Amino acid sequence: MEQYKAQYPQESNTMATLSERLRAEGMQKGMQQGMQQGMQQGMQQGVQQGMEQGMQQGEAAALKKLINLKFGELPHWAEEQIQFAGVPELEAWLEAILTSDTLESLLNRH
Question: Which of 24, 68, 72, 96 is deepest in the core (most CB within 10 A)?
């Protein structure tokens, strides 16, 4: 490199500028790709979370309706327990409502 600079001093600055420009372009492309990947991952996670939330809300709404039909008005404690339950627990309660005699036994509150 030093020999090149000595033989072609007028091109030394041009080559340095070209090198800096190529490095900057490479960094910019890398940043753009990173941002795109980050946005895509964020969107996928958002969609997944939205689907899970929608399932939870749908299961909870169905359970509340069935409880209301079978046991009457939903007490506050049951509303809260259903609100914070996950999909697997809600599904289990939806199946168990057919054979449960009381709301307390359904929601395992003895």
Answer: 96
